[in-house]
Amino acid sequence: MQTILVPVDFSAVSRNASVYAAELARLFNSRLLLFHAYMLPTPVSEVPYVMVTADEMQQENEALLKKEADHLHTTYGIQVESLVRIGIASDEIKELTKEQPIDMVVMGMKGAGGLDKIIGSTTTNVIRKVKIPVLIIPHDAGYKPVQHITYASDFTYKTSGSLFTPLLKIAQTLGARIHVLHVQKDTVKIEELAGRKSTERTFSGYDHEFVNVTNNSVTQGINEYLQHHASELLVMVAHTHTFFERIFSKSRTAAMAYETRIPLLVLQDKE
């Protein structure tokens, strides 16, 4: 993991994510790239006011971001760079992941009390637009040594072994055990059995175990498991129009992204 991209909006939430990313960068000897996107203010009334130019906003944001970068470099002894662009954040992040060899995006997310803020937010849009792993850090989740990783799957989709490379690399580097969690209904489908066998081959040679939980609600099943089994990282796969998107819908976001209160790593299985 050579480069970690961290979108920054100068809020406490994004600053917390930056600290978490810095801890990871130190462990993996990675380069940290702080990124900020801004939009020019739009007049909303006829009252005259002093218009800020694009150059002034660019310079101001560059100075603020450099201050953040210098602090992380000094505190964690890692390589930190900063980049500021004008534009819509999620679109600029998508383009940046195409332009540079970025291995992971680390973003903050507002938790309890801000349910409406995640829907349609930059974080959600980035998950849907980029094709690289996205690590979501809840606002109140500080960095903890990762010893247990829960990978939740319904085993109904074919995936390539390379999809799990980031997860396996993290587990191997940090010495963490992977708990493969399957939340099933009363009956198990044939494709689920085939999916499990495929996952067993992929995870062979790594410290892992398979756990089956019966629950009609996937989100409830995951949360109940996490409540009784400590885990520092939850992992899910984003397929196009499939399992993850059903989980990350308006009706289920609270249970999955807010109640767990642990970082969520989204692996991208997209064309």
UniProtKB/TrEMBL annotation:
Signal peptide: none
SUPFAM superfamilies: Adenine nucleotide alpha hydrolases-like
InterPro entries documented for this protein: Rossmann-like_a/b/a_fold (IPR014729), Universal_stress_UspA (IPR006015), UspA (IPR006016)
Ranges annotated as spanning the membrane: none
UniProt superkingdom: Bacteria
Domain UspA: 1-138
Protein family (similarity comment): Belongs to the universal stress protein A family.
Protein name: Universal stress protein
Organism: Paraflavitalea soli
